[in-house]
Amino acid sequence: MKVFLILIALLSSFCGFSQDSNYDEFYKTIEKRVFYHEHAKLLDEINVVLANNPDGYSTSEIENLKVLKVQALVDANLLDEGLALSNEILSENHLTPYHLTSLLIQRALIYEILEEFQKSFDDLSAAKVYIDKDQRIKTKYYAIWLIRMSSWYRVQDKKEQSYHLALKAKEFAEAQHNLSKSSEAGILLAFYHSDHKNYDEAIALNNKAIAVGKALNNKISVTYLYLNLSGIYKKLDQERLSNIYIDSAFNHIKNTDYLEIKSTSYKMKSEASEARQLLDSALYYYKTAVDYEKAHNFNLKTIKINEQTLDFELKKEQIEKEKVVTENKTLYKNLLLIFIIALVLLAFLIQEIKRKKQTDRQKLIIEKEALKLEQTVKDKTFLIHEINHRVKNNLAVILSLIEIQGQESNKTTEEQIKQLHDRVNTIALGHQLFSYDLDTAEKSFVNMETYAKTVFETKRSATTKPFSYDIEASKVELMVDIALPFGLVLNELITNSIKHAKPSNAKVLALNLNISLQDQNIQVIYKDNGAEFPTPQNSEAMGLYIVEGMLNQISASYTREQSTFFITIPYAKNS
């Protein structure tokens, strides 16, 4: 089991070197050191950057280097340190989803080795979320994720699930033309076949992995694969081949600095010598293995001490930074207090200046308002004068109408009241078409088409005799003092037509009014379609008297040809 987990850890670093790097040469150098298991050099170089950052790397770049450091710590079997660093990275939360996926897979391996399988599964599940969301991440990490899941099931003796995931990983890697990951998945398949005593398939898969490892010059992986083959041949009772692969592992690693794997190789060499009764050689190899193991353990302790020293220095630096920040905050507070006091004084001065300006402004406004009020009083006085003037004129007209109405003794009181009502209502209709205000006090104009239409409609609603009418008077206006008398004239003419006009052939009574502007005069033509033109009697003469009186009041004149009246009104306005 230990050999298997060590090999799994190697596989993790095996995939790391193949990633495309977007960072500088230092990042690439660190990746190479991870791949070749140069733990001491790697950690020394990264720790210098973490402590001092001499090249001014960005926060994101620093965090990505920390991910590589976690990978190196796991590879060196410094699991506690790797887990602590991964927790620190996650708390900072500066990783992109791409590098976060790599870190989660590394954490899953740590928890798997520590046999905390639920935590391992949780990190693998979190990594899968990012793999499913981003095709670039899936291309990079899906195969190794499948390998990690396969390993997760294998160490829990769930070999069938492990096999199917490893097979899926191999298929995906081959589709991506990624021989390294295909080889890693093949090693897991080799374990499965070995467990099921399908040794030929297991040997073939190990040999393929050895070929890839040699091509990539990954001596540790190749050495472990040699030792794995030695174990398979030992199960087959083929001691000669088992010893050959032990020798291959021994020779492959003996001139390297990889102390842990050298210790393992020398131990297996000792066991093989002991089995062959070469006791002196067995003792030599065993002592050498122990020496390498001690040296390896010493290196691990050195690395741990260095990590603790770095952690102490970083915490010390953090404390110093916090102290500086605290001092700066105190200074800032003092400066802020001084600034606030200065602002208060300045605000007070500004307020005083504003207050004086406001007082002056209010004084000026009061003076302007006083002048405006004085003008308003004058305007209102003028408006009242105008209203009084027009009311006086209209009352005079109404009194004249009443006096005239009283002279018509041949009519009933009801009929007289109705005629008086129509005449006074005509004046009221004119008033409805304009309003008294300062803007129209001097010149109030009434649209003649609108006024005439209103008079016609009023007469239509007040009589039982049907009639039609036509008005042509667009854009012609009269001042209200002229329009109201004209309205009375129009009322009398319509009344006269309704009473006396008799259209031929039983036609409906048709009234026509044409108002046009000619030079500085308004020309009015009024007629009906009556066929008979009776001589005016007393009552009709009274109506014509009103017509003449109103026209004289506005300096207008008229002529009559049978049922057609021609009226000329001066002082018109064309709107």
From TrEMBL:
Transmembrane segments: 331-350
Taxonomic placement: Bacteria, Pseudomonadati, Bacteroidota, Flavobacteriia, Flavobacteriales
Protein name (record): histidine kinase
Domain Signal transduction histidine kinase subgroup 2 dimerisation and phosphoacceptor: 386-456
Domain of life: Bacteria
EC top class named in words: transferase
This protein's record includes keyword Phosphoprotein: yes
GO MF annotations in UniProt: protein histidine kinase activity
Organism encoding this protein: Winogradskyella rapida
Signal sequence bounds: 1-20
Pfam families according to UniProt: HisKA_2
EC number(s) stated in the UniProt entry for this protein: 2.7.13.3
UniProt cross-references to InterPro entries, sorted A to Z: HATPase_C_sf (IPR036890), Sig_transdc_His_kin_sub2_dim/P (IPR011495), TPR-like_helical_dom_sf (IPR011990)
PANTHER family, alphabetized: ETHYLENE RESPONSE SENSOR PROTEIN, TWO-COMPONENT SYSTEM SENSOR PROTEIN
Keywords: ATP-binding, Kinase, Membrane, Nucleotide-binding, Phosphoprotein, Signal, Transferase, Transmembrane, Transmembrane helix
Reactions the enzyme catalyzes: ATP + protein L-histidine = ADP + protein N-phospho-L-histidine
